Amino acid sequence: MSVPIVQQTGRHLKWPALDPLERVLMILCGVCLTVFTLSTFVDVVTRESGHALLWLQEITSAFFTYGIFIGSSVATRRNDHLFLSALTEKMSGAPRRFFEVFNRMVVLLVGVGMFVFGWQNFATGFGSFRMPSMMPMSYLYVAIPLCGALVALFSLEQIVNGLKNGFQGADDAEHGREVGV
């Protein structure tokens, strides 16, 4: 039996319309990890053999950068990253609702900040260039505002659905916590 890429954990906090986006992001994250690993291996082998390929370091850093930012955005949707839930899972009722919304608002604001300041960084990156390809740094920097937009979107998704459906779901019931806020 295969495990689906889109997790059903916290389903009550997710819009089904964003499931294809999560699937694509997970695949892209896997591609980034694979290329990062292979390019690092080939870079080490070529350097040790005395025939270094300098452009491999650019590929390695690009896929590492994109992997980090794509991974953190999809982890936000899955509540695997940028979110502390240990305390709120022990709460119920209005206190839990307040802290769940507060936590997600903080993450949403971080996403908005990443988008705004990442976009500024992207715009100024056309004046700096990577060596030896001479590609503008903006091709790396664009990952920051994209991640910020996705983090903000996924945080908003959880706030809206949490206020509508409650933040406690079937996952909490399995662990013996009260369900139905």
Descriptive notes:
By secondary structure, the protein is mainly alpha-helical. It has one domain. The protein is 65% helix and 0% strand. The protein is built from 6 helices and no strands. It has helices at residues 19-48, 55-77, 93-124, 138-141, 143-165, 170-174. The longest helix is centred in the middle third of the chain and has 32 residues, at 93-124. It starts with 18 loop residues before the first helix and ends in a 7-residue tail after the last helix. Residues 173-181 have low confidence and may be disordered.
Number of strands: 0
Total of helices: 6
Distance between the termini: 33 Å
> Strand percentage, roughly?
under 5%
Low-pLDDT windows of residues: 173-181
Overall tally of domains:
1
Class from helix and strand fractions: mainly alpha
Write down the overall mean pLDDT.
86
Give the CA-based shape. elongated
Encode the helix/strand succession as letters: HHHHHH
- Helicity, in percent? 55-70%
How is the main sheet built? none
Rounded to an integer in angstroms, the radius of gyration calculated over CA atoms is 20 Å
